[in-house]
Structure formats: C-alpha cells, structure tokens
Amino acid sequence: MVNTRVAPIIEWLKAENIDFTLITSPTQIFYLTSFNCHPHERFLGLFLFPHTEPLLVCPTLEEDRARQAGWLGEIVACPDGEDPWARIVPALHARRIHMANRIAVEKESLPLSRAEALLHHYPEAKLITAEEALHRSRAQKDATEVETMAAAAQMADEAITIGLSALTEGCTETEIASLIEYEMKKRGADGMAFDTMVLFGEKTGLPHGSPGNRELKAGDMVLFDLGIVHQGYNSDITRTFAYLSCTEEQERIYHTVLTALEAALDLCRPGVRLGELDKVARQVIEDAGYGRYFTHRLGHGLGIEAHEYPSVHGNNDDILQEGMVFTIEPGIYIPDLGGVRIEDDVLITATGYRLLTGYPKEWQVVGK
Predict the structure, then answer these.
(1) Domain 5-138, CATH class in plain words
(2) What residues in the chain have per-residue pLDDT under 70?
(3) CA 58, chain centre distance (Å)
(4) Per the database record, which ranges form the Creatinase N-terminal domain (predicted)?
(5) CATH 3.40.350.10 region(s) of the chain?
(6) Is the bond preceding 111 in cis, omega lying within 30 degrees of 0?
(7) What average pLDDT does the structure give for the chain?
(8) Contact 39/5 with Cβ under 8 angstroms?
(9) Superfamily of domain covering 143-366
(10) pLDDT tens digit string along 252-290?
(11) CATH 3.90.230.10 occupies which residues in the chain?
C-alpha cells in the first residue's frame, strides 16, 4: 500500500539504518498522504518504517476525513484529553519497535515537548534530521502538481487584474486588498497564500509592508503582492505600477528590476547553481547604483507552502533540477520614496523554464 511519495522516504530509512521517522508537519503529511489537516494543539503524526507498514496518528474527530482523503493504512485515532502516546506506543510495539537507535524527525517543526515524549519511550535513540530527505522528496513537482500550481498562478494573474481595475483616486490599500480576497473566494480560491499586500506611494518602499488607510493619489507607485491557494498548492505574484503619472526615477527603477528578473530567468535551466540566479540579478541592480536597496534574497521555493525549499540566495550551491518551482522576485526599496518588486513563479523544465504566472510585466502607468 506504499504510495509513490512515501517510497523514497522508506528507501532513505533503509539506506541510513534509521529505525523510523516521525513526521509531524501538516504540510509534509498532506504531501505524503493527501490528508490535509491542521490539528491545532492536537497530535498529528505519520510514522514511516524501513520494513513495515506506515502508521498515521490523528485526532479522533479527523479520522473519517483521513479515510476520505485516501489513506488505506492503519490509523491511530486519539481522543481529546487523552495522552496520544498511550495509543501510539502499543501500535509501535505491534510492529516490533520496542527500542530504537536512530529516529528521524523534523527538527525545524517538532515541538520540544513532543521530542521529549518520544525520547521518554525510546531513551537510547539519537534524533537525526529528516529535513533534507523530505525537501528532496518535494522539490521536483510531478505533472499533477504542476497542473495544480499553474491553475493557482492563473488565479493570481486574475487577482492582479481585479485589484488594478478597482483603483480610483482616494481609495485605500485595505479596501483594494479586501476586494481582491473577496472576489477570489467568490471565484473558487481555497484561500489566500498569505495576507494580500497592497501598498501605495512611499509604502511600496517597505518589502513587507501592511495595507492600511493610505489613500491613493496621482504619482503613487502601486504594489500588489498576493498568492492563491488552489487544491492545497500556492501561487505567489508581485506586480508594480504607477498611478496616473510617474517620475523618470520611478521608471528607471522599474526597468532596472525588470532587467534583473530577466537576467535571472536567462540562467534558468537544469544544472545551474541556484546561487547564480541571485548573483546575476543582484549584479544588475548594483551596476545601476541601487545595490543597497535590494535587501532580500532573490526568491524561494513554492508548492504546498508559500515558502519552501529551495531558497534562492547567493550562497546556495544546490543545482536546478527539472520540476523545481520557485519565485524570482528582485526588488528596489528606497525609504520615503517607494519601491518596485516584480515576481514570477518559475518551473524548471527539461531544457529551460516555464513561467506559471503570466500577468504582463511591461512598465504601465495606470488609471489614465
């Protein structure tokens, strides 16, 4: 009953002589089982073993949904108010896991209290990280994932159109952000990948600014950064515009950012070092005199999570592989003046790349 996504992790357990792995992050469990569950403080875990059947542990109130998602293996359902280990340990013993030397866990997401509980029952075990194997398992998207992410990206394109068409002098950032989210839910989005960012004027100079009551006026830059969740997968897009009028410097900054993005895209193909994408984009911005105003990495992986492996920064020596999906999002942010960011979702193909986001990137002065 081992599915194709679980199989590589099991092979890794065998190769590394690991007794078992406990996976607790909801996103990774969704990837491996198709069961999408956010248990809050309750225990959710997937135990994988090198030589026996997997075990899914979930709250009792989620058991039916786990079956509906297609999980065919054993489920240990834990009622509220009961120590989940009282049910987990007998299930492990039934698999002859009475002791363990090496247990793989997600060190970045396993709470200390649960690590302590695990070691209470297996005190001789050494905990090792499962992150690298899990990252590898999700890094290369299959055809179904790509199709889903392409649909999410198309919805993100639509969201930009909605926001842009709603701009009127005197409207506020919050009004436009709220409208985008409302309209996308009406159109069938599962939700937003993160809080929708709509920024006007000088606030576009904040890479992670929050929409507020800033009113739109002529000469403002307008920045949209948003993402759509579709069937459990995320998109992420940023577009920047000028409203009614612009200055020469605003246009110059925009074209610098666009040139940086295009320079990184030119390198996108299997076999290229990830860090080179950041370096070439950053060099364009530095050569234009704006280097100190590009204050973040070039991009991040995209999939079940809005931010996942790989991280597109200059020190990343990992190699681009077919099926990887990530953002490229150079930006220039000048305090009190404003900024520009342009972001696309990029799929690495056998011979190059494919853009999943498609909203036009040419310089636009809107509202005329």
Answers:
(1) alpha beta
(2) 1-2
(3) 24
(4) 5-139
(5) 5-138
(6) no
(7) 96
(8) no
(9) Creatinase/methionine aminopeptidase superfamily (3.90.230.10)
(10) 999 999 999 999 999 999 999 999 999 999 999 999 999
(11) 143-366
